[in-house]
Amino acid sequence: MTHISADDLRFDIATRAVHAGQEPDPSTGAIMTPIFQTSTYVQQKLGEHKGFEYARTRNPTRDALERNLASLEGAQHGFAFSSGMAATEAVLKLLSSGDHVVSGENLYGGSHRLMVQVLERFGMSFTFVDERDPKNFERAITSATKMIYVETPTNPMMRLVDLRAVAELAAARDLLVVVDNTFATPIFQRPLEHGADIVVHSTTKFLNGHSDMVGGAVLTSLDDVAERLAFLQNAAGAVPGPFDCWLTLRGTKTLALRMKRHDESGRRLAQWLVENPRVRRVYYPGLPDHPQHELACKQMQGFGGMISFDMGSFDAARAVAEGTRLFALAESLGGVESLIGHPATMTHASMPASLRESMGLSQGLVRISVGIENADDLLADLEQAMEGAG
User: Fold this and answer.
1) What is the CATH number of domain 13-253?
2) How far apart are the C-alpha atoms of 351 and 358, rounded to whole Å?
3) pLDDT per residue over 193-242, tens digit each?
4) Could you tell me the fold of the domain covering 256-388?
5) Full-model pTM
6) Where are the beta strands (DSSP E) in 88-246?
7) Which sequence positions are flagged as catalytic?
8) Whose CA is closest to 296, among 200, 192, 184, 388?
9) Distance of CA 313 to the CA centre of its chain
């Protein structure tokens, strides 16, 4: 038995999630990838080793994870990092002082913070545009632009980016297109197939799926970009430990099953929220009345379990967020357990209030990550929380 390589797409993605990049341990036959808990490797003689010198550079457990994630995204190269933000930073460090990035305006607050409060101090510049219209990216491009960076669906407004349209305008100008695919996962969306150059993930979320590690990943099929990412990964050293890699590998094995459950329950809860008179507005691309539902059906194979809804006021949002029993009030998302949060004071608190308001991220907005619990129980929990909100 040999591992399924990243370019071997004969197998369904659910099969690749279980097997790709992994093979039985040659010394013992162990079917699960071992946790190679070591910092260094013995060399046979000067300049002669078995492919591993120092664990910051390579680790067999990390190698298996990187091959697995590359296979899922249909990429040739994979790089694992110690967090989603470390992965994002590595991608942005492909650029230099003076370079310009056009980014979607609705993205994770931590990504915005990294761009504006950290990287702008080193001479990079960023323009944030409404990502729903590809022409907004085109209008923002300057002679200094080197990259377009987007999330789709976005966090937390659930906007979509037309990946094919953005990739085409970028290709005509020799720009890199980077897509954060954390919300959709490769089960529901594979940006490289739509022309993107680089995919970023917070593996902390759905890929791991059990809320017990922190990690990130970058996937690409561009050899020159991969060479530079490998250099940055080793030079900066923001790599995950072997146990965290092993935990993510364990998670990807059930990814297809879990995403199906997230999606089924997400659709049901979104429809229930639409019909609830206490809810002012629901943001979920799986709803037929979502303004980009047609695009979602075109470039996604499912809609997932991330839903945002507006309760109309901060007090109502707080009452719901603090009133649930099954939905845990916590940051993060993508675990088997359901979570609820208030983006304006939690995940997006670092963003300027004016930017939050301009995109509709109000004080009344609540975001939920629908887990794999029984949907009836989750509905009942939301209902009792809303009744308590008055």
Assistant:
1) 3.40.640.10
2) 12
3) 999 999 999 999 999 999 999 999 999 999 999 999 999 999 999 999 99
4) Aspartate Aminotransferase, domain 1 (3.90.1150)
5) 0.96
6) 100-104, 125-129, 145-151, 176-180, 198-202, 216-220
7) 56, 108, 180, 205
8) 184
9) 29
